[in-house]
TrEMBL record:
<dbReference type="InterPro" id="IPR011659">
    <property type="entry name" value="WD40"/>
</dbReference>
<comment type="similarity">
    <text>Belongs to the peptidase S9C family.</text>
</comment>
<protein>
    <recommendedName>
        <fullName>Dipeptidyl-peptidase V</fullName>
    </recommendedName>
</protein>
<dbReference type="Pfam" id="PF00326">
    <property type="entry name" value="Peptidase_S9"/>
</dbReference>
<dbReference type="InterPro" id="IPR029058">
    <property type="entry name" value="AB_hydrolase_fold"/>
</dbReference>
<keyword id="KW-0378">Hydrolase</keyword>
<dbReference type="GO" id="GO:0006508">
    <property type="term" value="P:proteolysis"/>
</dbReference>
<feature type="domain" description="Peptidase S9 prolyl oligopeptidase catalytic">
    <location>
        <begin position="422"/>
        <end position="548"/>
    </location>
</feature>
<dbReference type="InterPro" id="IPR001375">
    <property type="entry name" value="Peptidase_S9_cat"/>
</dbReference>
<keyword id="KW-0720">Serine protease</keyword>
<dbReference type="GO" id="GO:0004252">
    <property type="term" value="F:serine-type endopeptidase activity"/>
</dbReference>
<dbReference type="Pfam" id="PF07676">
    <property type="entry name" value="PD40"/>
</dbReference>
<dbReference type="InterPro" id="IPR011042">
    <property type="entry name" value="6-blade_b-propeller_TolB-like"/>
</dbReference>
<keyword id="KW-0645">Protease</keyword>
Length: 583
């Protein structure tokens, strides 16, 4: 039995997960990259592998690069005869370059940019006893990302002279200009403090035109065939923990404005791509569904499964080919293609062959009302393969696993939670409850905004309500409950620990596992790398540098301030208080 568990753990850790998918210009082929879950590594450095497959041909995927280096971010040449990608093959983990791989037989990848050491940060230590202080000024050694253009034939590299940190680039449809987004500095909080500027520059890198200023971070800047630049950002634009939608800006106007183009009100956009004809396609979270949509909301693909990656190409007559990487509770992530929104999916890859024929369990979708009656809540309950449906089944020992974020969501997937925990726990016979509490993504601005000023209130009560739902439906054994979480989920697990049993359900969590979590939101404001931006938003500017000593408005978002009462209750019950296990 121990050998079987060890083999399963190793197989899960060794599973290659498709990440980036790119259709060839003629749509006949697909190049994609794979890596281990969460980019973990077997040796000293993380690796990534490129694969090539034929559109619509089952099991046609073949390995394109060795898998010994981190080969990632593949892109096709305009003629479809070569693939460009980023790699550290010159010196693993140290020297990076863009490589070009001709796809004809015998083609060898070669660098088109210099393979330079990108980890050239110097640390100088004072010699013992010389009295020289080892001081480094904050911001002194920032490494700005630069906008550079390389001529593939001559390998000549030109750099734009910009006193800003470039965060995204895209080509204009005619190839004469480059759109780019930038921030004042590479500091992680910069886009949340001073926002993002979207600009356009000519291909000679001489003339820069500012198009608009967006008050927060943006992703997936894309220049579409209609002439507009599109990107994803918060809804409303001046917040982070809200809905996520699509915006556009017109480079031909002089007004330096942006406007909302769609999504983020009742659902959330999570990725933009440009199709072969220059149209914009959007990956959308619609409650527990993953969708691929056009900007007008037309749905090309919809499943209650996590969509890891996608690419698409569309004709002017509406015909399209769609490539997706998706999975479910019993099948690891694979690459598929389809030619219609309701057509059959053709599986091109076989990265999960180790688990062929193995059944881990069943994904059950649960809904219930929040305890305050304000919203309907979603959750997944995963039952192991050994679970029998019917009047005589026994409730399961259950792990309640709370996602981080808070603005993300969980739906049916093989690696439903982090670090391949779900398939392993199912193999041990555990049931798994995965709550999407208020603040999660997939339901737009209003649902996500419950996090703002509501930490420790709405999210915590939703976890309790959904746990009660799983008990009432006969899935979870109320005498055998564990709760755990990572980051924001770990924070909620801490609250479940110190508030254990205070609800009226008549049950308690028997164990708590908290990973990478906070115990007090005020302390996080002073210690987090996003302390001066993320925390003020969640606390409605109620952060420690704005509050008087007797201001207790954030106590609901603190497990520390609840520990005294937890200890007192335990003493009265002649029990022992054990803080949650911190990872």
């Amino acid at each position: 039995m121990a050998k079987a568990h060890e083999h399963l753990i190793l197989s899960l850790c060794n599973l290659e997960v498709p990440k980036t998918i790119r259709l060839s210009p003629d749509r006949s082929s697909i190049v994609y990259s794979t890596e281990l879950t969460w980019g973990h590594r077997k040796g000293k450095h993380a690796v990534s592998t490129l694969w090539l497959a034929s559109t619509g041909r089952a099991d046609s995927s073949r390995q394109l690069t060795s898998g010994l280096f981190r080969d990632y971010a593949p892109a096709w040449s305009p003629d479809g005869k070569a693939v460009a990608f980023v790699s550290d093959r010159a010196d693993a983990g140290a020297k990076w370059a863009i490589y070009l791989l001709p796809l004809q037989p015998g083609g060898e990848a070669y660098p088109i940019t210099p393979a330079e050491n990108t980890t050239d940060e110097e640390v100088q230590s004072a010699s013992a006893g010389d009295g020289t202080p080892n001081v480094r000024a904050w911001g002194e050694d920032w490494r700005f990302a630069r906008l550079r253009v390389v001529d593939v034939r001559t390998k000549r590299v030109r750099s734009a002279k910009l006193d800003r940190h470039v965060t995204g680039v895209c080509w204009s449809p005619d190839g004469t200009r480059i759109g780019f987004s930038s921030c004042l500095s590479p500091d992680i909080e910069e886009p949340f403090l001073t926002g993002t500027i979207i600009s356009a520059i000519d291909v000679d890198l001489n003339s820069v035109k500012k198009l608009c200023h967006f008050p927060r971070i943006i992703v997936d800047l894309t220049w579409a065939a209609d002439g507009n630049l599109y990107f994803c950002g918060g809804v409303p634009a001046n917040k982070m923990c809200v809905g996520y939608g699509v915006y556009r800006t017109d480079p031909t106007t002089e007004f330096h404005q942006y406007e909302w183009a769609g999504f983020g009100v009742e659902d959330d956009s999570s990725r933009l791509i440009k199709g072969s004809s220059g149209e914009i396609l959007v990956r959308v979270q619609h409650r527990l569904e993953s969708r691929v949509c056009l900007l007008d909301g037309t749905v090309l693909y919809s499943r209650k499964e996590e969509l890891e990656a996608f690419d698409a190409a569309m004709d002017t007559d509406g015909k399209f080919v769609l490539a997706v990487a998706t999975s479910d509770v019993n099948h690891p992530v694979e690459v598929f293609t389809t030619f219609s929104s309701d057509g059959a999916m053709t599986r091109l890859s076989d990265h999960g062959r180790e688990f062929a024929g193995r059944r881990f369990g069943t994904c059950n979708f649960l809904t219930c009302m929040s305890t305050d009656g304000q919203v309907e809540l979603d959750a997944l309950y995963l039952t192991p393969a050994s679970f029998s449906v019917g009047d005589h089944h026994r409730p399961l020992p259950t792990a309640v696993l709370i996602h981080g974020g808070p603005n993300t969501r969980i739906t049916n997937a093989f690696n439903t939670y982090y670090y391949m925990l779900a398939p392993y726990l199912l193999s041990l016979g555990f049931g798994i409850l995965l709550p999407n509490y208020r603040g999660s993504s997939g339901r737009g601005q209003s649902f996500a905004s419950y996090s703002i000023g509501g930490l420790g209130i709405h999210d915590y009560s939703d976890v309790i309500a959904l746990t009660q739902c799983a008990i009432d439906r006969g899935y979870a054994d109320k005498e055998r409950l564990l709760v755990g979480g990572w980051s924001q989920g770990g924070f909620l697990a801490n609250l479940c620990s110190v508030r254990n049993g205070l609800h009226d359900g008549g049950w308690r969590f028997q164990a708590v596992v908290s990973g990478a979590s906070i115990c007090d939101i005020d302390a996080m404001a002073l210690t987090s790398d996003l302390g001066c931006t993320f925390e003020p938003e969640l606390s409605r500017d109620g952060v420690i540098w704005n509050m008087d000593r007797d201001d207790t408005r954030n106590r609901a978002a603190s497990a520390l301030w609840a520990f005294k009462d937890a200890a007192r209750r335990a003493h009265l019950e002649n029990a022992t208080v054990v803080p949650p296990m911190l990872i």
